[in-house]
Structures are given as C-alpha cells and as structure tokens.
From TrEMBL:
Species: Caballeronia humi
Keyword Chloroplast on entry: no
Source organism superkingdom: Bacteria
Positions in coiled-coil regions: none
Protein name: Long-chain-fatty-acid--CoA ligase
Taxonomic lineage: Bacteria, Pseudomonadati, Pseudomonadota, Betaproteobacteria, Burkholderiales
C-alpha cells in the first residue's frame, strides 16, 4: 500500500524560491573581479537567476544541455547555479587551475553549448576557444564597460547585456527530480578527468544532510564565506545550503590570499567558513605575522586533505574557532563524514578529545561506510584495522559521465553497489573514520603498510615545520621506505636530526623515515592538494642513489 502524501519533485530551483520568499532581504556580498565589493539580496539573486534562464532559453538552450563556467565564487556564478539548473540545463563547473589541455578536453567531453567565464580567465579562454567545437558563444561575466576590447575570441557575449535584455518573469519548470543538474569532473591526477553527473534529487538530499547540526550546522543566523571554490564540487554544497537555511553569503572572488580573506571575514562578520588546509595555512600565517585574530568566526569546515592536528590546535586554542574536520569526494557530492563530537567525548580529557576530532569523522545520515581488506572481506570497526573505504548512498556516483572507465561499483552479496573510494581508512567503534592514506600513496615496506598521513601530521606539529609530505621511495631490501619532504617556516632553523628526534617515540620505530629532505615548496594540484604523484616521480629513486 502506498502512503498518501503529496509528491513534490526535489528541484534546485525550489531552493532559491525558498530563499527569496523567506529570506528575501538576506545579503549576498561578493568581492568582484572588477575590484570592488558588490552586495545585493537573495531576492535580487532570484530575479537575475530567472533572467539567466530566460536568456539561455532565448539562446536556444534546452533541457539537459551542458553549460560551462570558469568562474570564482561570486554572485554572478550563484545566478548561474540557479539559472542553469533551474531551467533544466546542466551546470558544468570547470576548474580553471587544470592544465589548458584538460580544460579543453572536458569542455569537449561535456559538449558544453555555452561557456561563461570571469575576466581573469580570458587568457585561458583565448587558448582553448578554437578547440571547443561545441561552444556556440563565450560569455564574459561582466558589464559592457569592462568588456575586453579586441579579445580575439569569436562569439564573445557580455553577461550584463544578456541579463538586461531578458525577462525576470520566467517561471521555473517542473520536471523529474532525477534529471541531471550539475556536472563536475574529478581532478584527474590519474589519467583524464572523469565526469560526475549529479541529479536535482541527489543535490537536495545532500543539502539537507550537509545542513544538519553535526555537519555544517548552518542557520539563518550565520554569515558563511565559502573559501572552497564553486568550481570544486559545488563549493561543498554551500550555495545550496545557504538558500535552504537563509544564511548570509560572502563570496571572496579571486581574493584568496590571507589579507584579502581576513579583511572580508572581519568586514562582513563571517561566522562560518570552509576550505582546504593549504588555503587556511595562508590565512593563519597572515594572522600570526600581524598578531591578529577573528572577531566573529565561530566554526570552520576543513576537508579535501587531512587537517594537520597543529592547524586544528591553532584555530581552536589561539583563535577560538571550532574545527570541523570533514571528508568527501567529487563522487560524493562531496560530503561523506564530519568529525563532530558526541556527548561522551565532551567528558574526555581535551587531548583525548582532540585525537577523535582529528579523525575524518562519522558518516552523515544517508552515507553507509565499510572498510575491506585486499580480498574484499569486511574489516572490524576497531580503529586499528585499515582497509579500503567503500561507500554508498543517494548522493554517491553510480557511473561516470559517458561510462568513462566502466562501472566503478563493487556489488555485495545483497546486490548493493558500493563505490570504492581509493582511500585507506580505519573506523572505530563509535563510527569515526580515519583516512590513513590514498591507496596509491600508501607506503608498502616489507609487505606492511605505513601511513604517510600519520607521519605528516606529527612532523607538521614541529614548531619549525610549515608542511611535511611523506612519500614512498624505492628501497632495495624493503621495496619501499618513507621519505619525508619538509618545508621549513620562514627563518626557522631545524635539521633532519632534530626532526627525526621529534618523531622518535611518536611513531613505531620502523615507520621512521629513511631520509628527510628540506625543500622550498611542494607542488600543489588544481584543488589545492599536494601532488604526491609528482613528488614520487621526482624522488622515488632518492634512497637508491643518495
Ligand atoms: P576530490 O574529489 O578532489 O574532492 O578528492 C577526494 C579525495 O580527497 C578523497 O578521496 C581523499 O583522498 C581526499 N580527502 C578529502 N577530504 C579529506 C580529509 N579530510 N582527509 C584526508 N583526505 C581527504
């Protein structure tokens, strides 16, 4: 017997309709590429999103057509989030930090019909334009006054002209909630990037889960500044969650350096933010150098890579900002787990509580986790056994766009599909998951696994160390041994012996790196993560040759 409740399709347009109706005067503040600060409201955003949809309809865009964006976090990007998805087309956010060949590849692969871009990315557009055969026009996200003269790009349109000429009375269509809404490509550290195609339903369910108290914990009292880019897995869902709960939004645009971010945090009284550790490091350094702290910030979500325990301590002890360590993937929309404490942890000694908090955390409702050994056998949740992490849930990828790479799922005895994350993890009895490595980054020494992340976390807690990266280097006897690449803080004095002494007693003896190499910097990829693959290429023979 079916229940007797109303059916309402879960559509992304309903989020901006809700934000307009219930939080119409709540602000969206943006640092613009043009240099100034722009402010308007959810009501204005809704009106202009409808104008976007109307303009695209006039341009001949139809349901399911892909529309690309190369843009920073800003109000025009937000209008595209809602205008494109709301009309039933597919929003394809492109990471502009990818190599130009990869950008051209994914525009072609997605068959984008139009490409919106911030002026910063004009040089990139010029390089790829010829190769983007499916793109009918490139739309510069600016006004007539700032349009580039002699851009050299054929079919260049102006965003503000397009909007101005379009009607704001557009009515959002109703369609199947399983329709594709958004396309994001993985960062492609191995092979070509693969497309993950979200649905309206998966995006809305993800937003409900992300807004929960033990996840982002966002409300209408919050001022949210997503540092995580809108081209990196929908800024972890924040543009949707903010509409759902009515939080004020502050977009940093291209200003991601410590000074620009700090000024915006203070001027707009930001209470909550989210980003990868590398960006936070820049901000924390800026605060330290200037003897500054936050006046309104309460919480920050840190994910995308392991949050070093030293960073967690600095945020909480020095600045009074609660750290929510979270784990996710493009394939998970992206949220999987958040390290939010349970009441029993609050009674623990603070240092023990920190150990739990440093883990990647508990699954948000909707996500099932399990860890398996090399033979696919499920491992116990004892916080000790490490195995590959598998996940399932209504916002987890089922297949990549155009079936790239074939079916990624592993099917269990009940016929359920599980997505293999490629991460190696433990899960403790309370369900707190801890990533010990990417499966390709794990160091296999004499048949046993060494967690590069554990070694890095301890090394970065040394006061003279800015960052530490541990990789597998070839070894004649043990196959692989850990090699630690460390970046010193400016003017800090520390030797390899000092660092080895610091690690002594904190890790198993046989985990001790065979060598420590001080480097000026480590390569960082398109999503702000250290490119271990490149370091392995560079240093894999280090122990054989030195
Ligand atoms: P992406 O799809 O670019 O977001 O990358 C997803 C991958 O980033 C995951 O599979 C993890 O390897 C890594 N990752 C994400 N969050 C964390 C975290 N909190 N700690 C460690 N690794 C993480």
């Amino acid at each position: 017997m079916n229940g007797l409740m109303l059916q309402k399709q879960l559509l992304i347009s309903s989020l901006i309709v809700h934000a307009d109706r219930h939080h119409g005067d709540t602000e969206i503040v943006s640092r613009r590429v043009e240099g100034d600060i722009h402010r308007y409201t959810f009501r204005d955003c809704h009106r202009r999103a409808r104008q976007v949809a109307s303009a695209l309809t006039d341009l001949g865009v139809k349901m399911s057509d892909r529309i690309g964006t190369l843009a920073w976090n800003g109000y025009r990007h937000m209008e595209l989030y809602y205008g494109i998805c709301g009309m039933g087309a597919v929003m394809h956010t492109i990471n502009p930090r990818l190599h130009e060949d990869q950008v051209a590849y994914i525009v072609e692969h997605a068959e984008d019909q139009y490409l919106f871009f911030d002026l910063t990315f004009l040089p990139l557009v010029k390089v790829i334009a010829e190769r983007c055969k499916t793109v009918k026009a490139f739309i510069a996200m600016t006004d007539r006054e700032h349009m580039p003269p002699d851009s050299g790009v054929a079919n260049l349109l102006c965003y503000e002209d397009l909007i101005e000429a379009s009607s704001s009375t557009y009515g959002w269509p109703v369609f199947d909630e399983d329709s594709a809404s958004t396309l994001c490509y993985t960062s492609g550290t191995t092979g070509n990037p693969k497309g993950v195609l979200y649905t309206h339903r998966s995006s809305l369910l993800h937003s409900y889960a992300a807004a929960l108290p033990d996840a982002l914990n966002c409300s209408a009292r919050d001022v949210v500044l997503p540092v995580v880019p809108m081209f990196h897995v929908n800024a972890w869902g924040i543009p949707y969650v903010a509409c759902m709960v009515g939080a004020k939004l502050v977009f940093p645009g291209p200003g991601l350096d410590g000074k620009s971010l700090y000024e915006l945090f203070e001027a707009e009284q930001v209470t909550f933010s989210a980003g990868v550790p590398t960006v936070w490091q820049g901000l924390l350094n800026y605060l330290e150098q200037g003897g500054l702290t936050f006046s309104t910030m309460k919480r920050t979500l840190i994910g995308g890579a392991t949050c070093p325990p030293a960073m967690l301590r600095e945020f909480e002890d020095r600045h009074g900002v609660e750290v929510l360590h979270a784990w996710g993937m493009t394939e998970l929309s992206p949220l999987g787990t958040v390290s939010a404490m349970k009441s029993k942890h609050l009674a623990m000694r603070p240092e023990d509580c920190r150990v739990v908090q440093s883990k990647q955390g508990r699954a948000v409702f909707g996500i099932d986790l399990k860890i398996v050994d090399a033979g696919g056998q499920e491992l116990a949740w004892d916080g000790v056994n490490a195995g590959e992490l598998l996940v399932r849930g209504p916002w987890v990828v089922r297949n990549y766009f155009r079936n790239e790479g074939g079916n990624p799922l592993q099917i269990d005895a009940n016929g359920h599909g599980w997505f293999p994350t490629g991460d190696v993890a433990t899960i403790d009895a309370d369900g707190f998951m801890q990533i010990t490595d990417r499966s390709k980054d794990v160091i296999k020494s004499g048949g046993e696994w060494i967690s590069s992340i554990d070694i890095e976390s301890i090394a970065t807690s040394h006061p003279a160390i800015a960052s530490a990266t541990c990789i597998a280097a070839k070894h004649p006897k043990w196959d692989e041994r850990p090699l630690l690449l460390a970046v010193k803080k400016p003017d800090a004095k520390v030797t390899a012996e000092d660092l080895l002494a610091f690690l002594d007693g904190k890790i198993a003896k046989w985990w001790t790196p065979d060598a420590i190499v001080f480097v000026d910097s480590v390569p960082v990829g398109a999503t702000g993560k250290v490119l271990k693959s490149r370091l392995r290429e560079q240093y894999s023979d280090y122990l054989l040759t030195s």
